[in-house]
Automatic annotation (TrEMBL):
InterPro entries per UniProt: PQQ_rpt_dom, Quinoprotein_ADH-like_sf, WD40/YVTN_repeat-like_dom_sf
Residue stretches making up the Pyrrolo-quinoline quinone repeat domain: 118-238
Membrane-spanning segments: none
Protein's organism: Stieleria neptunia
Chain residue ranges for the region called Disordered: 134-153
Descriptive protein name: Outer membrane protein assembly factor BamB
PANTHER family in the cross-refs: CELL SURFACE PROTEIN, OUTER MEMBRANE PROTEIN ASSEMBLY FACTOR BAMB
Designated gene of the protein: bamB_4
């Protein structure tokens, strides 16, 4: 494996997954949401009486604002600042629709001039603090018909904001909206013209970006202060969109990235630590995360018979692909062959791993052993899902594409306690900070809280 240590003026597509942030100067980490699925990438937050279990378009809604354009990244929160990215088109293009797309993407780039935007809103009032147009121009690559040219979630280290527009560039701002640096991304052809989607991650002064495509895939590190490229490692992958994980455990800190051909871990210098062929699905989308000292990897394209979930022990090195059954590997704690979702990422809450399937089912497994607690249970009323679940207060929350949140009681039995409607297309995963739940719909950003 080779690495380039040259500083390059371009950057390819990235997603967002910041850990290792420097929030000591700005407040307690519980008041922040620094990356996709939160500071620790799990989607689980401590109980807070201000966090609601019931809402609709008006009940428990502190504010709801229109967000121009389209974007499916989650909101990012630092203190009382909420950041979102979006792309505004001058001409009307294909609008996203719910449900599964089992064919090709949009074959041509979207029409008209586009404006790649970054917005900052006030957490308490929803008022706009600032906005900045990162780029203006015509898209040069197509995209998935359900996606957006702002599919990635921004990330922050508590000092700066990092916004990735996958096939355009990586942009760094001060929290007050001053542009600090940017790096262009060289767009590449992606599988079926689906475009980019993985989010970036921040750790220890590095912005980590993964761009898997059909032409020249890579993982790279950029200096968080200057944007200079620290290292770049080629990847032999083509069909992966998962956000990487900064996995911190007693033995070391590593960067875990799922992939169709191989699941891999890299050092903070970009060197390969371990890998294995997990016979992953043809499309790899769920993002890895850690709980109970294990790292969970998944892929579950609906058309594949093998849709595996793996729980990995720390300390592996080299190729850990077993000769026989996956469960025979020293570093695979457990493995389930058909327990993974397609688009959503799984969640571990307490001792249980919950899987929300795109077509409207949930399963539950023991997070430490992989033993099935309950098999597929259908949501009622029925729904389809892209957003990943989150959890607090003894409940797991599942947001459907119809904008209906199912409040599911955590535990060994599947029980829907409540359904909360917003009545608009929802694909972005919600964010939580300072007793407030932020839900992004097709056109709006809503702040939901019990706080008076």
């Amino acid at each position: 494996m080779t690495k380039s240590l040259m500083h390059r003026p371009f950057l390819t597509s990235v997603l967002l997954i910041g850990t290792g942030f420097l929030f000591g100067a700005t407040g307690d980490a519980g008041d922040h949401w620094s990356r996709f699925r939160g500071p620790d990438a799990t989607g689980v937050v401590p109980d807070d009486p201000r966090l609601p279990t019931r809402w609709d378009q008006t009940e428990n809604v502190a504010w709801s604002i229109d967000v121009p354009g389209q974007g499916w990244g989650s909101p990012i929160v630092v203190g009382e600042r909420v950041f979102v990215s979006s792309v505004v088109a001058d001409e009307e293009n294909i609008q996203p629709q719910k449900g599964l797309y089992l064919g090709k993407g949009v074959r041509d780039p979207a029409k008209g001039i586009h404006h790649w935007m970054v917005y900052c809103f006030d957490l308490k009032s929803g008022s706009q603090r600032w906005k900045h147009e990162a780029k203006t121009g015509r898209p040069v690559v197509p995209r998935h018909p359900k996606s957006s040219y702002a599919a990635e979630t921004p990330t922050t280290d508590g000092q700066r904001l990092y916004v990735l527009f996958g096939d355009v560039g990586l942009y760094c701002y001060s929290l007050d909206g001053e542009p600090l640096w940017s790096r262009d991304i060289e767009p590449r052809k992606t599988n079926l013209d689906y475009g980019a989607a993985a989010s970036p991650v921040v750790h220890d002064g590095q912005v980590i970006v993964v761009y898997d495509n059909l032409e020249s895939s890579w993982i790279a590190s950029f200096d968080a202060e200057t944007g200079d490229e620290n290292w770049r490692t080629p990847r032999e992958e083509t069909h992966s969109w998962a956000t990487p994980l900064i996995w911190e455990h007693d033995q070391r800190t590593e960067i875990v990235v799922t992939g169709r051909k191989k699941n891999r871990s890299y050092s903070l210098e970009g060197d390969l630590l371990w890998e294995f062929d997990g016979d992953m699905s043809v499309l790899v989308i769920p993002s890895p995360f850690a709980a109970h000292g294990l790292c969970y990897l998944a892929s579950g394209y609906v058309g594949d018979s093998h849709r595996p979930t793996f729980a990995i022990r720390p300390g592996a090195s080299g190729d850990i692909t077993p000769e026989g059954d996956f469960a025979d590997s020293e570093f695979i704690q457990w493995y389930q062959p058909t327990a993974s979702p397609y688009n959503t990422s799984q969640i571990v809450y307490g001792d249980y791993l919950y899987t929300v399937y795109d077509q409207g089912f949930m399963t539950c497994h023991d997070a430490k052993t992989g033993e099935e607690v309950y098999g597929k249970r259908r949501f009622s009323p029925s729904g389809s899902f892209t957003a990943s679940p989150w959890a607090y207060g003894g409940n797991v929350f599942c947001l459907s594409e119809d904008g209906l949140t199912y409040v599911v009681k955590a535990g060994r039995d599947f029980e829907i306690l409540q359904t909360n409607p917003l009545d608009e297309l929802c694909i972005a995963t919600p964010s939580i900070a300072d007793g407030r739940l932020l839900i992004r719909t097709l056109t709006k950003l809503a702040c939901v809280t019990n706080e008076e």
